[in-house]
## 1
Amino acid sequence: MERPNESLPAEKSEGTTTAVVAAAPPRPIDDEARPDVFSSTVQEILFVAVATMAIAMSSLVSGAVTVITAEVQNDLGMTTAQLTWLSGSSSLAAGSFLLFFGRVADLFGRKALFLGSMVLFAVFSLAAGFSQTPLQLDILNGVMGLMSAASVPPGQGMLANIYQRPSKRKNRVFACFSAGNPMGFVFGSVFSGIATQLFNWRASYFLLAIIYVVVVALALFSVPVDPSPTTALSVQAVKKFDVVGTILTIAGIGMFSGALSLGSDAPQGWQTPYVLVLLILGAVLMASFILWENWYSYPLVPMSIWRDRDFSLVITILLLGFLAFPIMSFWIALFMQKIKGYSPLLVAVHMLPMAIGGILVNLIAGLVMHRVSNTLLLAIGATAYVGSFLLMGLQHSTSSYWAFMFPGLLLAVVGADFEFCVANMYVMSALPPAQQSIAGGIFQTVTKLCVTIGMGISTAIYDAVVARGTATGGYFRGDPIEPYSATFLYCAGIAALGIPLCAFLRIGRQGNTGVFQSGFVPSARKLKEKGGPGVLPRKRFMPRSTPGEGCILGLYAVEGAVGVEEPLAISSHFYIYFTATQSPISSQKWYG
């Protein structure tokens, strides 16, 4: 079978650099123009906003729960572990089923799943407001997380298919979309605080239901027809669905995360037999999932993407950040309610800097991602995280809000938004258009799983410090903030691990016309396997040229046939775009 670029002629440059060029020049494509699927800019803006509300679902629930914990605990008589389940059940359900729904969306269609999940989210939000027991509320929060898992992959997949080529417009769109996760938490906290103050905690869930009824109405108008090919239900479709992989990931993530959430409230703590069994079984099933995916012909998650060092590092840095950011937000809100005695409305007001700062940071991210090295943005984000958590962890109960908490909240959203924006753009470039929903599922699974794991670890730390009693000496002598500070210092320690990892990244500017995007160039052997005779060295490089001079438009990770308007394949993961002048690579001046 002929490979995508075997029919294309090759041109060799002086020295060792070789490139494969297309036989005919492509027609110019304006990547900054409004996509043809939209009839107007208003429709485009509304669609991006609706997609952003999809990724905000789970974090809106977590944010809303954060400021009503004290009210719910008093009303329903919940234990500390039940409170953490209130937040963790949504993330657990979302994290367990994201890959499943990502595969469903890619194979059987995205639009129907996207709209249906939002309708059901509104229904279950309404039902949660009528909960009479802790168990009912925890279960309904989990179902809401399930609906979040069903909406994010198709929403992200549609966005990635509409904005396939690197561009400034794509940067702005994905900066807005990425804001949904961290900003959903913040606005969920603010709106929930206001609703609870005016009525009661149940009003928070009713408000979520109303919001998503409006979102569904806007979605019916703005969501375009999804042109992606779908698969009819058949034996072959079931084979491509990877049923075994789906079962392994759902059961593995569910058991492992469930054990972490149950451990602190179990009769014998972490030594309780059923906690240990769930923990071990979950770990074994997740390991089995990795082995299965490496062997199966139609894997749920293509394991080859992890061979890209930058991809693995970006996910790891994001993971470390999300083991801390939602955790800090939960415990700082609980501290304000339990120790400071703030009402839900006052908690919302004190957390308002996160909302305002988050909007500004996302605007900045969308404007600079094509100008500034994204490695630098990740490093700034990781450093901001550490600064934020240290400020939270070193304050006393009587410390000034403006000296500690205010700058800490601002730095937290700098870390969350920079890391989330960069990672989201990079991950969506790691799989072809036909697998964009599963790409979104991978990304979201990491963040949701981190919330559950982080909550389990931090709850264990909190309970251990509480069991020890109030400190009689040292920095926190007689201060009831000590158990909360212990969770914040855990956050600082785990986030700090991401800073040195940034030194090994080689991510350039994303979506910048005229600049080669970050990635690796294959060895001569791999290039020949793709049909070219070249001997490009395995190193990272960028062309020193300007638009209109045959420069490379960008590196974009897709796989598929190469045509006149398609990127030119040079490896199994990466492709290169050319300008209309179609000058050969050999004319470029490369630097590492």
## 2
Amino acid sequence: MGDPPIEMPVEWDKYVDEPLTEKELERLWQSVNRQSPFGDIIWQQKVCKALWIRIDHKTCGKAKEK
């Protein structure tokens, strides 16, 4: 594996090996189900703008039948 494109924090491997909290895991599954970027709202907005992705946090999943 090559060098990462950014300088990695000290002991980054210990950080990534830590299990997610229940809240983080719930947010991860929301992102997966909504097919949206995972991270804080500022980061999500930057990614969506860069990739021309529209995220509507009010609705997700299949439209309800009338």
## 3
Amino acid sequence: MLRICEEGSEGVLRCKFGAGWPPSAAVGDFRRADGGGVLIGPLDDWNPTVLIESIVKTGSFRFHGARPVLRRMVVSVSLPVSAIVRVLPVHVAFGSTAAAAMLRFSSRARSLDPRAEEKSQRGMIGITMGFEWYEPLSNSSEDIAATHRARSFYDSWFLDPIILGRYPKEMVQILGSNLPELSMNDLSKLSYGLDFIGINHYSAVYIKDCLYSACEHGNSWSEGSYFRTTQRDGIYIGEPGEVDWQFVYPQGIEKVVMYLKDKFNNTPMFITENGFAGNSSSIEDALNDVRRVKYLHSNLNSLANAIRKGADVRGYFVWSLLDNFEWLDGYSIRFGLYYVNYTNLQRTPKLSATKYQELMYNFHIELETHTALK
């Protein structure tokens, strides 16, 4: 998925989410500023090289828009392949090949911006990942090591090669030659790094070792040999949300940001998704979404702590403005600040729609005050 974000004259960053491509390919004259010469047709070849070139072409077209803006930002959104491997009955080689294709696309991303030579006008190139916070189930060295493996197999699989120029050591130790080799050309292009890291954050889990410890369930050896659990001694990691995978753990967003700050030399960050999933059966309960307001309030306070500690966080996007189709959950859950009637598409503001404006105003004032007192 490609996200195009534009900074308008008023300084507000606006994003067009879901500018996807395959199985379609863009063809035609990409020099036409009005886009009239560009056609979208079926993609007949799923070869990774063909896919990458189609993505780069489409992204290049997106950067040639007719409407002038102050800044454009291309965000490559990667669903961690380890998650795909867990959901689908596929071999680890598939996951490795798909991940390598994503990395090679990242190495080509700079060519998406036709103004790359003009640094003052250059667009921002970044990658957005899903970041759950992983907390060791215990203080044992095994569980701590398992937590590092979990991060390596879920997020660092992509970020380490792009920013540090190498695969995570935990993956190398376990997968070895099963990891696709990145050529010197790939590494050279990846060495440009990222202008920012996008963070999609919702929840947290505990991690238990399954490599050196007894473990009835958990990921396979090829996925890092660890077990995800939401409970320690029968107590949940946070207040259960309204869906089975989300727990209210507000300190998680601060911990994720500080972890990325310390590991990747404080690369600029955007919180590209953060929100509360609701599944209220009545419209009245859905509109009076007090739990969503509390979730956003606590997460923004936690994020403010990270910024006060020096984390270079450039922006925050709540997920989402409107109720919409949600991945595997479809229309069964709602994240929106506005309630959508899926029959007639009428939109009604929830409590969170009005409270969010107040929360962001207080968030801004709090950070301005902190800066003034430094």
## 4
Amino acid sequence: MKQPYKIPLQEIPPEGREYTFTEKSGELNQELKDLLGTHSYHIEIFIKPQGNIFEIKGSIKAKREFICSFCAKDLEKEVNESFHELLFIEKKPLPRKSHSSQHFSPQGEQELFCNYLGSSDFFVGSYFHEIIALAEPYQIYKEEACLKRQCPFYKEALKKGYISSVITDENKVPENTHRPFSVLKKLKIKT
């Protein structure tokens, strides 16, 4: 098995260095295969050192296969993500009392996200794998008709029984069935 692609951060010159990765260059194909399959991708990054902190910014453009959340049909969507973060090399882990987790999450949109690395090797594939995975929408749909439940594939899947509508006469719960949260209806809140 091929070793994960890594960038030795200590070898980056003070003016920074630019990197480009594509499916044709192949350095990240193995690590991104489960998300992108054989689809094309284009990743550009610029890394600039600032002491033991490295500023990283760039963009990812890729195609990815999804399944419609409503009609379960396969579809292909573009992934276009840009990022601007900091990489902090933490050679000796800080005591547990000095920080609460391995990363810092900014409060505002203008602040940078900070990733803590245990060594000066930056494993590019796993970093981009996470960015691409997190770019997946919560509910993805093939077309606007899917959102309105008017997609012909949705209607066909309902008819064949592959999926069921949220509420139909067949899947309604009978009235005499015990409902654990029904007791909440009787609660009165004192104000």
